[in-house]
Input
Amino acid sequence: MTLSGADGEFVLKRVNWEKPVLVKASGFRRTQTNLAREEPVRISLEPFDAKGVYLSYYGVRSDTVRGRVLQLIENTSINAVVIDVKPDEGTLSFQWSIPLAEKIGSMSRPTIDDPEEFIAELHAKGIYVIGRISVFKDNLLASKRPEWTIQSVKTGSPYAERDKMAWMDPFRTEVWDYNISVAKAAAEAGFDEVQFDYVRFPVNTGPTVATYRKEYSAVNRGEAIVGFLKKAYQELLPYNVFVAADVFGITCWYDDESGIGQPLREMSKWADYVCPMVYPSGFTTGFMNTDEKPVAIPREVILWSMQKALPIVNGQHKKLRPWLQNFKDYAYDRRQFTDREIALQIFASDEANTSGWLLWDAGNKYNHTAEALQLLETGSVSNLLNKPLIAEQKVSQ
Output
């Protein structure tokens, strides 16, 4: 791997003239080119910001759901789709040659028969294709390799949260290797990007709750997650695939590992994109030193979070691509996020000059999404900005 300077210039000390040079950069489309022996080569990258929606393991299998999502993409400015490669359940969406996956039966229920053909069809429509991989929440792997899991102190069984999905131990490098093998298979199938989700420790699982292979300390947690991401990034370089990591929204506000092993500063060194899940419903009232409910100020939540994250990722705003809330509030007044709330979040992401944005709707319904994009494209969103932006204050401790 060779990094260019600030001016984009790079020098290759060792050149294999038989192979193309693979080139990628955050905020641009990837490319490859052959080198000429006689003269320097100029490589131009096309700017690209992903504006995407999520299509679940179950959604991609359904003609109705998949068709609805693809129709939304065709009719709007959306240009990317995040497809489950390995959801929390641990089953794989496609069949590949992965020895451990074959042993544990994770390819027994594929949702797409021919991934290469499917991805080629999406590419023909101009769609950027992202493969989501749930890393340390993997119920199937936990059932087949319980010795690799986090152990519940109370039950002595693999640790699971209220959704009853078991967690793998992030300290187990066997789990790292399995997920990297899945990512490589996705890259070979043609995905433009692999996105690691649940690349963290579960919340509040200290020694009275769970046992791990190593000491459950802030240093060890951060080293485990960054270690996995570094190994994955390095091993995926020959595939010229982008690497992304989903992180909690709170990581934008604290320059540490946030109790879950997600030090944003270090993670951003080993990912082309970091995707903070800055859902307004996920923040508490008073967190931003305002009495307003976060769901009532979606623009501020997104904008302030991106502003806080920017210095943590060393000013590389094109490494930031937030997940935005396209679902009903679950924490406050159960309000439906309509075109207003969705449009304000996207507007804030654009204000922060991020590398696009992603909309999360687990049910793949995307109610009000087209209307929200219409507000933005026609400039009507300005009618929603008549309320002065609340003055930002320091995050409450």
User: Anything to note?
Assistant: The chain has two domains: 1-48, 50-384. The domain at 50-384 is CATH 3.20.20.80 (TIM Barrel). The first strand starts at residue 21 and ends at 23. The CA atoms of residues 250 and 258 lie 7 Å apart.
